[in-house]
Amino acid sequence: MKYINYYNGSTTYRIKKMDTSESKYDRKSELEAFDDTKAGVKGLVDAGLSKVPQIFISPPNTSTNNSNPTTGQFIFPVIDLEAINYNQINRKKVVEEVRDASETWGFFQVINHGIPSDVLEEMIRGARSFHEQDTEIKKQWYTREFTKKVVYNSNFDLYSAPATNWRDTFFCIMAPNPPSFEELPQICRDIIVKYSEEVKKLGRCLFELLAEALGLNTSHLKDMDCDKGLSVVCHYYPACPEPELTLGASKHADDGFLTLLLQDHIGGLQVLHNNRWVNVPPTPGALVVNIADLLQLISNDKFKSVEHRVLANRVGPRISVACFFSTFFLPSSRLYGPIKELLSEENPPEYRETTVHEYATYFTVKGLDGTSALQHFRR
């Protein structure tokens, strides 16, 4: 076997050199070697890597070369939330916009959402600062035990995914049982706490609008604890020497109820709309909102949890902060199935009941393999 060793002054990275004459390679060993460094993709880039290692190369059917993303054919939905504060007529208009976007796109951007721009900017800086601090400091949070409240690693599905994604991730569970202030990384703990509180307020507002869009009582989704859990996930996508060979995040849908995404100016997020990949423009001050699997499940397919992905890029790092509303791995026996008020003889339940824990566990074990976890829970 042919290997290239990279040394960045503290860690040696031993990555297999691609050899097209070889029909097989020991993928598991390479994954373990990468995992053992605890330095992530950033560690490879810092060490001077100029070629994408084979573990990162996407299967041919997921190649970005033939994806033909659209740039002007579709107008990505943008919803101004400021209007809901004026009168009921304006609120009704916003609810209609939320309904239309949730049914047809599964995605929309919100502006005038109430989170100050300086908080958004500080959150991006905080996420970047965590990933760019010394590896030896970051290693104390490196783990694959996803029940921990504070986790840093590269690719949650490293050992099950068809290809490794070009990104590193730090996440923390911020509700309902957050870690103590001292458990959070010192370099970004203040902004994570501040940003989480802002996102929780915005989340409550969005769940009210979504409930009204379903024709339900304003508090219906909140009464179901859809806004009870919150995880803050900070992604770091280093500049990639061969972005056409890999992805920042493979095609997937999210497994919770709702996701709020803060992204920097670089872009790369794409949504699958009408069987075409559509670029999501990185709009300053806006947040991206997307319906997640469990909201599609309880709405009985009324709202759509749509597949999306992130492209790798020669420019970087790209920073994004995804906030997931879900209780994930918290022990709870509460069952979630299609909301009874939405069902009828013409609209029978499409899904069996499940717990959030069962759904999240299935999603995590399955990994980002290009298939929908929802299919496993259909009747």
From TrEMBL:
<dbReference type="InterPro" id="IPR005123">
    <property type="entry name" value="Oxoglu/Fe-dep_dioxygenase_dom"/>
</dbReference>
<keyword id="KW-0408">Iron</keyword>
<dbReference type="GO" id="GO:0002238">
    <property type="term" value="P:response to molecule of fungal origin"/>
</dbReference>
<dbReference type="InterPro" id="IPR027443">
    <property type="entry name" value="IPNS-like_sf"/>
</dbReference>
<dbReference type="Pfam" id="PF14226">
    <property type="entry name" value="DIOX_N"/>
</dbReference>
<keyword id="KW-0847">Vitamin C</keyword>
<dbReference type="GO" id="GO:0016706">
    <property type="term" value="F:2-oxoglutarate-dependent dioxygenase activity"/>
</dbReference>
<feature type="domain" description="Fe2OG dioxygenase">
    <location>
        <begin position="228"/>
        <end position="332"/>
    </location>
</feature>
<dbReference type="GO" id="GO:0009805">
    <property type="term" value="P:coumarin biosynthetic process"/>
</dbReference>
<keyword id="KW-0479">Metal-binding</keyword>
<dbReference type="InterPro" id="IPR044861">
    <property type="entry name" value="IPNS-like_FE2OG_OXY"/>
</dbReference>
<dbReference type="GO" id="GO:0046872">
    <property type="term" value="F:metal ion binding"/>
</dbReference>
<keyword id="KW-0560">Oxidoreductase</keyword>
<comment type="similarity">
    <text>Belongs to the iron/ascorbate-dependent oxidoreductase family.</text>
</comment>
<dbReference type="GO" id="GO:0031418">
    <property type="term" value="F:L-ascorbic acid binding"/>
</dbReference>
<dbReference type="InterPro" id="IPR026992">
    <property type="entry name" value="DIOX_N"/>
</dbReference>
<protein>
    <submittedName>
        <fullName>1-aminocyclopropane-1-carboxylate oxidase -like protein 12</fullName>
    </submittedName>
</protein>
<dbReference type="Pfam" id="PF03171">
    <property type="entry name" value="2OG-FeII_Oxy"/>
</dbReference>
